[in-house]
Amino acid sequence: MQQYGETLLQVSLFIYAIQFLPQIIHNLINKNSLVNISILTQFGMLFIVLCDLVQEFHNDAHWSFILIPLIYCTCLTIQQLQISLNNRNLNPVINLMYAMLLSIAFLAIRSNNTLVPQTSIVIELAFNFAIWVPQIHKNIKQKRCDGYSLLFVVLSLVAILCELASSLIITDNIVIHINLIVCSFTICFVLYQKFYYRNTTLQTR
């Protein structure tokens, strides 16, 4: 069973490494959909991936485990640039905060304080609970759900389900289990919104 858990974890990590590629292409093709991306969800993703990066460096993880959050962080930064270039009225403070978070993460990686990786775990779990809530709210407010591509949302769901199954096999940490279950439900709701608002748009045409 342990082997199955590790295999599922590897699958989820592989998905995390590639899932932003179709999203970046989606943003290039559908520039108008960038206004539907929640900045809070964008920053939530950044918090999570930076915390993960800090943990991997402090745990002296294998280079492949460090490469995945680095790729994810790079893709997030590309998306942030796409959002900024598409919206000239975007408050410059947002991009400044983005750069500050990257700088803080770099300092945390360089730090020798043993509390740093422990703190990053707590922050990651806290943000993972509610990462998709701002996006769900924005979809309801704008009555659309085209910011994130269908493929990105589906890959997110598959990755989180693989991670959940892996955690149920490998660890008995109830906090991690609840965290992943809640995150799975929120992604399912975003997926529901994708189809609901698409059907609503088709009916009004």
From TrEMBL:
Tagged with keyword Transmembrane: yes
A Pfam entry, by short name: PQ-loop
Keyword Ribosomal protein among record annotations: no
Subcellular location: Membrane
Keyword annotations: Membrane, Transmembrane, Transmembrane helix
Top-level division of the source organism's lineage: Bacteria
Sequence intervals crossing the membrane: 34-55, 61-78, 90-109, 115-136, 148-170, 176-197
Annotated Gene Ontology cellular component terms: membrane
Membrane topology designation: Multi-pass membrane protein
Name under which the protein is recorded: PQ-loop repeat-containing protein
Taxon lineage: Bacteria, Pseudomonadati, Pseudomonadota, Gammaproteobacteria, Thiotrichales
